[in-house]
């Protein structure tokens, strides 16, 4: 806190500046108080500690996220209006029990879909937060589209609204999980709770504005089907664009399979480590299958399988693995097996998070050299011995978090014991 005083006989003025930060070298001005004998004025800044308490990508993300949320709530009014009309609201022939049963089936399908989606994809949401954030909103768009379409097909109404609810259930799970991951990313001063609360209030404000605009739009377009579809599709296109821009501006500092691949390939070619901002511009936000048709750099991570099941090996492969365990991988807690161009990683049952990260980087090096040399195990081991520690040190100095690799859980592990008489793998 700094205090400056201007002492005059007529009207002394005191100016007090409020500063916030985790250390004396990381301070940001949060408020200015100006006091005179007759008045006190306060000029406040952003929420607590802003901007030093959050990452630089926080503000642009919130702007785009609020815009895409606003378009969602406006469209929700249109789709809900169509859904209620299809159920029979306002029709004399409609029964309460019939509408209740249809609404129950819709909600039940969504709940069941959310449980199944969590079971099959829960461990993958944290490692691909940007992709799942985008996919979640695309699935929400699909769900609202089905609600809007449902009145056009009365005979298949229940099926359509259940599919729409199923689509939105994926949105709820993926959006909630990725939101938690992004909140941790934005937090620089252990203020995740404050960031989450501020984001909640921003979303509430966007919801209120969207509801008002949505009711106004629904009233204007009532009975005009062409206007309804034009408004809905226009807002959907804007929503997709805003959501893409929101995800694109994120510069995550955690290591997942794709960011690790980009960083390692660049390091092997130039000896330098890219910054999180540079990597964010090179990431493929959409799923791999959606970008396979584009002209992109080879994705080494698609050629690595982490957590191989050793019972899937045949006898010759098992013998080769035993030989590798006693030679090239004697000092590490993992084994690498190449099968048809895919590098499979066998993790030791006592391996740590650091071992998983090292094994994945080693596998990426091997995937990069598999078509270039016949002695890939020895060459990749030499590369790792010489460059890996330097690589990790440069990553840390560039702001990357190297504690662990964000990846789906490694389910299958192994324990190997080798010696002159009892070479075996259990």
TrEMBL record:
<keyword id="KW-0472">Membrane</keyword>
<feature type="transmembrane region" description="Helical">
    <location>
        <begin position="204"/>
        <end position="220"/>
    </location>
</feature>
<feature type="domain" description="Root UVB sensitive protein C-terminal">
    <location>
        <begin position="273"/>
        <end position="416"/>
    </location>
</feature>
<protein>
    <recommendedName>
        <fullName>Protein root UVB sensitive 3</fullName>
    </recommendedName>
</protein>
<dbReference type="InterPro" id="IPR054549">
    <property type="entry name" value="UVB_sens_RUS_dom"/>
</dbReference>
<dbReference type="Pfam" id="PF24160">
    <property type="entry name" value="UVB_sens_C"/>
</dbReference>
<dbReference type="InterPro" id="IPR055412">
    <property type="entry name" value="UVB_sens_C"/>
</dbReference>
<dbReference type="Pfam" id="PF04884">
    <property type="entry name" value="UVB_sens_prot"/>
</dbReference>
<keyword id="KW-0812">Transmembrane</keyword>
<comment type="similarity">
    <text>Belongs to the RUS1 family.</text>
</comment>
<feature type="domain" description="Protein root UVB sensitive/RUS">
    <location>
        <begin position="48"/>
        <end position="270"/>
    </location>
</feature>
<keyword id="KW-1133">Transmembrane helix</keyword>
<feature type="transmembrane region" description="Helical">
    <location>
        <begin position="142"/>
        <end position="166"/>
    </location>
</feature>
<dbReference type="GO" id="GO:0016020">
    <property type="term" value="C:membrane"/>
</dbReference>
<dbReference type="InterPro" id="IPR006968">
    <property type="entry name" value="RUS_fam"/>
</dbReference>
